[in-house]
Amino acid sequence: MAIEIPRTLYSGKIKTLALGKEGKSVSVGGETSYPFYLFEGEMPNPPKIAMEVWDCPPEDWPEAALEPFADVSNDPVAWAKKCVNEYAAEMLCLQLMSTDPNGLDRSPEEAAQVARKVADATDVPLIVWGMPNQSKTEEVLKAVAEVCQGKQITIGPVETDWHKRVGAAAIGYQHTVIASSPIDINLGKQLNILLGNLGISDQQIMIDPTVSGIGYGIEYAYSVMERMRMAALTQQDEKLQFPIVCNISKETWKAKEAKITVEEDPKLGDTKKRGILLEAISAMCLLLAGGDILVMRHPEAIRLVSRMITELTKTE
Amino acid sequence: MPLTGIQIFKLLPKTNCGDCGVPTCLAFAMNLATGKIELSRCPFVSEEAKVQLQEASAPPIRPMTIGTGPKALKIGGETVMFRHEKRFENPSGLAMLLTDSLSNADVDARLAKFNLLKYERVGLTLRPELIAIKETTGDAGKFEALVSEVTKNNDGGIILMSDNIDILAAGVKACADQKPLIYAATKDNWEKVAALAKTNSCPVVAKGANLEEVADVTTKINQAGINDVVIDSGSRTIRQAFQDQIIIRGSALTKKFRPLGFPTIVFPCEMTQDPMMEAMIASVFIAKYGSIIVLSDFQGESLFPLLVERMNIYTDPQRPLATTQGVYEIGAPAEDSPVLITTNFSLTYFLVSGYIETSKVPTYLLVMDTEGLSVMTAWAAGKFVADAIGPFVKKSDVWDKVKHHKLIIPGYAAAESGGLEEELNGWEIMVGPRDGALLPGYLKTWKP
Hints:
The complex is a heterodimer. By secondary structure, chain A is α/β, with parallel strands linked by helices. Helices cover about 40% and strands about 15% of the residues of chain A.
């Protein structure tokens, strides 16, 4: 019996961005269909994984997450190099955790210098991610933009409250921005419009929808991302046709279920594998909803997700 | 496409007898079109019209039940491609594979695990539902014995898998009262499998090498009188299986293509040898339309993540999950432990209780019913404000357990601290951090 394959009517396309240094750039975006619906359209640039590097030694990571980086956790440059050389990271994401006003509270200048060193030491595209929901982040990102001039990095999260001055710095120093909104399609779209009005080119904007892990409300981000893709691809909503970045690993490894040992709760099984799967399955869900870049931590979780991307995109 | 009221009206007797409980045939037709009444209420409708109407009014993806009793698994009945459009109706059932080549000890161990691996979360019990019993040895007696063993002390629904009709029949014999799902009818054996299913009123999996072949099989066994059908598209590569799931649901919903209007079964256990990859593949089918997902085995480290993923994806977007109002003891709090208050949005509760656990500071957490709204939303909606919080806090029996009268409120409700001091005369209102992640630091330095 012949099957008439139903097809979505697509009218839009996700913008293609080239991230990173000239000659070493990596393309993201460019989709013409829902994620992995390859019988309907194309995914010319399969999703990328940016390996997470912290700018200060993590204090609350479960052992399983810290173990691969224990030898480099107090040196962001060595850490970044290890990700690239040992784990073949296609991108990096430097999380500026040291700037937390309730933590180490390092100055914007100090943080920017570390970002510069990491950018100098590696050739893969670099995302520099400040602390969310902090007014200080504005100063931090401005300093990073300036100090990393010429490195063509990506900076975020750029929030509505202070998008202007960080946006201006991004234009001035030619970086890409990550427009961050609190799990809301309309606020996300509005910020993209504001950034456009400011003069940031469409080739320099990506979206952070604010994500959480499985068991912690991933369905909110999941549906907001699906709605963004629907608007972008089927309703020609140009202000949502940007690649989506998901900073997911931080969320999954801080959950208590990533820390409970098998002795404490035998039903939860092996602690390390559970932590890896909490990260990898969360990442997988976000890929299915429309993620273009995933910020991830554990090399094994990254291996699993990379294999799934390969499997879902390979031609027989 | 579903018929309109007028189209239905044309097929009715037009006698306006009123026996159906509605005064006129036109009104009955209108009610039928919107699903408010069942066709069976009309005693005079012709057989021919009945067939036409039933076909047109049936849900696009057939809803059905696997197993019997209160724990039977509901599948099918889906109405949307994306959960935000309405909601996903029936969470994917997770099945554990048992083969007849396993030793008795292995079978016992797996069945014990099946019964053990259940998790409590926001008042729900997360658990796997099904056991798939697969014949690999060609021994009908052995298969029947295994099926009997499984049914003895297990409440899971049963899937019986064999290429051999006689062995399937032996399996059905051992658990017929549980209405097992029979796997599978193919283009070669569908007549016999359909007959076995019909005699025992069991649901059947229709399997084909591809969707075209599956559609042939579902049509044939439908005609043979089997209505409860589950589809195995036959694909065992990840990309093709994923694509099949989307095409099956899309055909059923947007094309109203009946031969594919059924729930599906997928086999991550046959797509990889690596248990971690198997969990990844299963996670894809939880989000993308697998009605039954068969895994080679269950391990807590992979089953738990899959169950929480499933809970999230199948949450009704219009109804946030809520936690029960009350006093929650975290750690082993004593009379000088801090008392916190928050709202009953389940995410808020999870995050706050998680951070309190991380702090290792024993704490009382008051959870107030705000109709499932988060702190900020509940505050903005006037549900988490001083004159609502005050009476709730006053009534709480937590104050019999601690010797102080200090209440820590969320940073996002800081504006209520003045009002609360008026409401709660004699209490000291302390403002906690806005971000839950800062709670451990806050609690560690807190003094009664």
